[in-house]
């Protein structure tokens, strides 16, 4: 059976070895006679999975001990609400850097919870560029600064971490684990799993322990980070299947050599496509400015709409999936997350060259 050339933006490609391992363990997980989905979340085999997933994430991202690792539900979208609910402070504002549609949504939700504002925006330039770190305004009345580390729709990514005196919050949904990060530079990191970590259904939150003191007792129990921190993300039934698959993906990432090794492959994969774009004499036009280009989502259009459509139609015929740009912006987008094999990116680069020459 042939696997698709899967360039989906999320849910997205998973490592084939992970899917095979899940298949092997499908009917009888480690002699239990059950699928992981069929066992209690309070059972020993599940608790082990839960713990291993946490430990592996700690290892791969070198998460310091003064951070909690939480497995939540509701997607990254619920974090747009939970972050301000838990981190907002009296008389202070949630401050947001707008680098695309997802940061706009995060700000919109924060404004429903309390005071929040955009301190920089790339909208006037169609979100082609990440604002320079040095241009960010000072933040005397900020409760936290929120950034979107990778902009899935526009194909831009932060390549320098802002150094600020207030807690830095990052939505890393579409680039967590694509490269090493210094967790200590952040107050809170969140990421829906369905791009680089596993299937949809689980959201990872990494939060500095002292920030949990900001949460107020009036918060609904399930929306209070402290509930999940105190109960090791087992206050209620967690998404056990998603966490099991997360564990398998993390084992796979670890076996490859962790984030440094993944970054090296990701740079190689991204360069293959950006080089085709740059060497095409304007036949392919990249959306992002070169300095802000994403390692994960390569966005481009062709010379005109007719050619863009012809390219996408032919790509579909050849077995490429997910190359259409987000429905809000059109054009083309190749999402090349960790699990997309280098060989598949090579086939796409070759197809792009061939299409141009024809
Ligand atoms: N943030 C980013 C950067 C995303 O790419 C997405 C989903 N594509 C979201 C947030 C929303 O995630 P979810 O669907 O898990 O709520």
UniProtKB/TrEMBL annotation:
Free-text remark on how the cofactor is bound: Binds 1 pyridoxal phosphate per subunit.
- Which residues does the UniProt record annotate as the domain Aminotransferase class V? 5-348
* GO-annotated cellular components: cytoplasm
One molecular function GO term is: O-phospho-L-serine:2-oxoglutarate aminotransferase activity
Cross-referenced InterPro entries: Aminotrans_V_dom (IPR000192), Aminotrans_V_PyrdxlP_BS (IPR020578), Pser_aminoTfrase (IPR022278), PyrdxlP-dep_Trfase (IPR015424), PyrdxlP-dep_Trfase_major (IPR015421), PyrdxlP-dep_Trfase_small (IPR015422)
Task: Tell me where in or outside the cell this protein is found.
Answer: Cytoplasm
Enzyme Commission code: 2.6.1.52
> Which keywords accompany this UniProt record?
Amino-acid biosynthesis, Aminotransferase, Cytoplasm, Pyridoxal phosphate, Serine biosynthesis, Transferase
Tell me if Cytoplasm is a UniProt keyword of this record.
Answer: yes
Binding-site list for L-glutamate: 42
Give the sites modified to N6-(pyridoxal phosphate)lysine: 195
Cofactor(s) the protein requires to work: pyridoxal 5'-phosphate
Q: Which GO terms describe its biological process?
A: L-serine biosynthetic process
Pathway per the UniProt entry: Amino-acid biosynthesis; L-serine biosynthesis; L-serine from 3-phospho-D-glycerate: step 2/3
Known catalytic reactions:
O-phospho-L-serine + 2-oxoglutarate = 3-phosphooxypyruvate + L-glutamate; 4-(phosphooxy)-L-threonine + 2-oxoglutarate = (R)-3-hydroxy-2-oxo-4-phosphooxybutanoate + L-glutamate
Q: What class of enzyme is it?
A: transferase
Function summary:
Catalyzes the reversible conversion of 3-phosphohydroxypyruvate to phosphoserine and of 3-hydroxy-2-oxo-4-phosphonooxybutanoate to phosphohydroxythreonine.
The subunit field of the Swiss-Prot or TrEMBL record says: Homodimer.
- HAMAP family of this UniProt entry? SerC_aminotrans_5
| NCBIfam families noted in UniProt | PRK05355.1, serC_1
**Listed name of the protein:** Phosphoserine aminotransferase
Annotated gene: serC
